[in-house]
Amino acid sequence: MGKPNQLEPKLFYHGISLERRIPKDHPLRKIEQLVDFSFIRSKVADLYGRVGNESVDPAVILKLMFLLFYENIKSERALMSQLPLRMDWLWFCSYDLDEKTPDHSVISKARRRWGLEVFVSFFENILTQCIDAGLVDGETIHIDSSMIDANASKDTLKCQFRIAGQRLYNELEDNAEPEQQKLEKRVSTTDPDARLGRKYGKNTLGYKDHRAVDDKHGIVTATKTTPANVNDEKVLSEVISEHQTNTGTKVKTAVADKAYGTGENYEYLHEQGITPCISHKRNSCNCDPAFHKDKFLYDKENDCYICPMGNQLKFCQFNSDKKAFIYKADRQICQKCQHFEKCVTSKNAGRQIQRNVTEEYIEWADSCLSKYQRKRLMARRKHKAEGSFADAANNHGFKRSRFRGIEKAEIQNLMIAAIQNLRKLMRHISHKPAQPALNPACFVRLLADFLAHNPFWQPTLVF
């Protein structure tokens, strides 16, 4: 039996090298080889002066920000407290065991100074490597969004009062007492950019991350951050445009859930030549399913609807609020029909139908793909888009913002998306089969075959 170890700190340690301590197959070694963090120096060179204290190397600060999300650390303060204890982190950031590490405020100050463009460039650099490796097809994308809790409590929401500027100016000119105008908006005093959003029956104070995920390998090709109260349908065109800019590829098929299924979006996709796989919310109807709106035929030439029994519903009026044309049938004619009670729900009028101003685009979207194609693409969307958000939440702390403000929330989303893409790139490279060496016997056979087909070939000597 061995004796208990008694730790006696040495005054000097010889032969200790972080380079030898870090395993050859450590993930941070692969990241160091794949990612050029030094690009940041030229990006932020004009943001630093020539006098005063020398700053920490911007490449090291970017590596620290990378570790914050890669290792799913809750805060920058926690990251810097753990840094001296991790030899792999020290090696990755080019620090030695006895070297003093910077304060956590260095990271937050640099993030504020650099702005958003630096992190957009970092995301685009990783995405370009994924495209060069053949991981992005670009023609079929899945679009989805996910809520992110703000770094603030819902208890900080307050009703905001504003004074209309022009009215105040006029009232002051007239020596009148200014009147306050109350806006029906609640704003967090902690994070004024965050908004209340509702999803799956739950209110969330925070933001939304809207993503475009490529169908081939699930690479995130575009990400846009908005307040939580922004409807998904408002962001579809921006996400598609950003995807096409980042990848340089024209989208052919866009897949999304019914939250994106509006006539305006279908019209946009039709104009762009993009095939939609996006279902839409159908108007509810209290009538018998056999007499739903879909059972009525629209006669474009006469601008009327034909009911299943052959009667006409003629144009009556335009509803500007719903942006729809209203068609009505004569109630006296409807009362003579044997299906009157099943079809008509109004107590005073005959059967009514609303036709959206973009109805032709809705009909076009419904007829683009077969039922089998829709089912297959929607299943892939669940795996690619929703799986991308699940991976971000489980491994990189995606579901809660570490910072306050929409720009900082977007920085977090860009970094997490870039890291997810980088992990897929590393996996692809590690699984890529190595090129087999040419067998000498095989080389001799190839040379003999070449000479047999080219008997007059003579080698050219170059000096």
Structural features, described:
By secondary structure, this protein is an alpha+beta fold. The chain has four domains: 18-114, no CATH class; 136-152 and 196-281 and 367-427, 2-Layer Sandwich (Nucleotidyltransferase, domain 5), CATH 3.30.420; 153-189, no CATH class; 289-344, no CATH class. The chain is built from 17 helices and 13 strands. It has helices at 18-21, 27-34, 39-44, 58-70, 76-82, 87-92, 105-114, 117-132, 165-173, 236-247, 263-272, 331-335, 340-343, 359-366, 371-396, 406-431, 440-453, and strands spanning 140-149, 157-162, 181-188, 195-199, 202-214, 220-227, 253-256, 275-278, 297-299, 304-306, 312-319, 324-328, 352-356. Strands 1, 4, 5, 6, 7 and 8 form a six-stranded mixed sheet that branches. A five-stranded antiparallel sheet has the order 9-10-11-12-13, with no helix packed on it. Strand 7 (253-256), helix 11 (263-272) and strand 8 form a beta-alpha-beta unit. Helix 4 (58-70) crosses helix 16 and helix 11 (263-272) packs across helix 14 (359-366). The protein is extended and about 105 Å long.
Distinctive features:
463 residues, 6-stranded mixed beta sheet, 5-stranded antiparallel beta sheet, 18% strand, extended
Helix content: 25-40%
Overall radius of gyration: 32 Å
Gross morphology: extended
Architecture of the largest domain, CATH level 2?
Answer: 2-Layer Sandwich
Label the structural class.
alpha+beta
CATH class of the largest domain: Alpha Beta
